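[retry 2/3] LysR family transcriptional regulator: previous attempt timed out, resubmitting with same input.
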Amino acid sequence: MRKLPAIGALRVFEAAARRLSFKDAAEELNVTPTAVSHQIKHLEQAIGVELFERGPRRVTLTAAGRQLFPTLRDGFDSIERAIEQLVRAQGAQVARLSSTVAFMARRLATRAGSFRDAYPDWTLRLDASNELVDLDADADAAIRYGSGLYPGLLVEHLFEDRFAPVCSPLLNIRSMRELRRATLIHFEWGEAVRGDERAVEWRQWLAAAGAAGIDADTGVSFSEELHAVQAAIAGQGIGLLSLTLVEEELAAGVLVQPFDLSLASFRYDLVYSARASARPATTVLRHWVREHFSAH
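[retry 2/3] LysR family transcriptional regulator: success.
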């Protein structure tokens, strides 16, 4: 008989160790951070060692935690692959598409049903991650946001993103004079692209517009782009935002673009590995993505 701690506690530990965050693990497992903390505490008591060093703002793995994590991670990965193979062997057809968190929330999630309409014998599995996933093992294809250069992968260009000021029509911003009195909404670009001229910020747009007397650093700043979008929708100010991510709100009149000037940013591409190119799952994803998200 195997002498193992509760499998649920091991699963919680693996998620928390992989993300180095009890909060993020809780979101992944659809439980509360308190439940995650309790499960890990019970696991530590069961095996008699501490697995995490708990700080005021973050957690880190102890030496014991670092020793245990790879084995559990690889074990759960193997279990997941085995189950997926069993499901596929029973006739289920699963197409796995990865994208950034923002594009998933603002564009893919609102169109996911159309995939089932077009391919009723397939199940669409959507994976939202800002990390680069393994396109041989973890996804059949991915929609990526960046320069378009992905060595070793096949790339199909979809469209170029553009940024412009957008706001609620209730703010009545129609001129530079009104913009000077408005609250500017910002978000922080990731470290990988920060400083790149395509990571568009208010300072660039104001310079291109020839707008004088406006402090580009004032206003409200968010660490997450999606939160900046929500603030603009809620009428909390005017955001320099991706027109791709607010396309539906602009079409519905929930948001307006007071100024015609927009600046080019990064591009969206569909990418997949050469080995995946012959998979039926990759083929249906290519057709569906091109139909709904190619140049517009």
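[retry 2/3] LysR family transcriptional regulator: DSSP finds eleven helices and ten strands in the chain.
[retry 2/3] clearing retry counter.
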